[in-house]
Amino acid sequence: MQHLEALTREAAALAQGVLPLTGDEAEVGRVMQICNACRYCEGFCAVFPAMTRRLEFAKADIHYLSNLCHNCGACYHACQYAPPHEFAVNVPQAMAKVRAQTYADYAWPGAFGGLYRRAGLATALALAAGLVLFLVLAVAMRGSLLHAPLAGNFYAIFPHNLLAAMFGAVFGFAVLALGVGVTRFWRKVSPGEVEGEARGPAIGGAAHDALRLRYLDGGHGQGCNNADDAFTLWRRRFHHFTFYGFMLCFAATAVATLYHYLLDLHAPYALGSLPVLLGTAGGIGLLIGPAGLLWLNLKRDPRTGDAAQKPMDRGFIALLFLTSLSGLALLAWRDSAAMALLLALHLGVVMALFLTLPYGKFAHGIYRSAALLKWNIEKRRPGNLALGSD
């Protein structure tokens, strides 16, 4: 034990003395040097075997490992060097802080990177703007938010082409901004990738890990630590409800688009139609998942997260929940005299969600998937140690 403590002190001193890092990045570098000497948590998740392939941790390595971390908290509760030990090793918290920094550093356009640091305010303003926009448009087009029933015909309120142009432009920009950002991230953390490595088994492995949320099992299948050192699988389950609920809603929109343009079948669609069934199932998932994630977030041990990110986390959760709630309410009362009001509220929330996609919590799924791809490439290589890269 004395030998290990001496080794970890030496590693910590090395980290503090030679790493060209500052602030939160330097802290991740410091704890990774200590963890690399200890290696007790090597089987917990992908971070630790990826760590053991490195002798030094430069900025790109710190960004990669921080986005590979799923913040399950297991390593914090297992660590003998966690606070109040003098080494004060807290991997989940240190990496959570760096993750938010990477989103801002790689954001496109770069001037918008600051929105991550003010995500709570940005979410509130986007929601207010979206609601005002569509409420005013609804009054301008119908003269009132209450009207004679329109048999669920949304396009009697807002023309299809207007909605397609508005949401298509905003969603297209979100895809472009996230695409440019994650490409910048990939080029920085993956210099010198051999052509063809990011194909076949590596892509399949990364997709498998991402879709199953493999690393939210705590490394032993019992789940994450949330409020304390007790294990729970509920964080993984609520993430699944959220992700697959979102994908089902996206599928409903895609199918409705095909119906409209290819089959010349226009909304409103019957309750038993495929778009409505997919949207309803997705909407239920997006009620259960975000509600559960908010509950867990409120109970989360503050020692394993970054308090500064709570507005970003909770703002995104709230937008997902409100998108689903307003959508299901619109479906239930689409034949009523309040359809214009419900439609304006739903579209306003969805617009806020689209506006904040590239500059909020949604980004973590994109960057983490890229980190998982790098890990699935890396672990298929010979186990040569890397010296780190800027």
UniProtKB/TrEMBL annotation:
It comes from the Bacteria. The keyword Cell division does not apply. Keywords: Membrane, Transmembrane, Transmembrane helix. The chain crosses the membrane at residues 119-141, 161-182, 241-262, 274-296, 316-333, 339-359. The keyword Transmembrane applies. This is Tricarballylate utilization 4Fe-4S protein TcuB. The gene is tcuB.
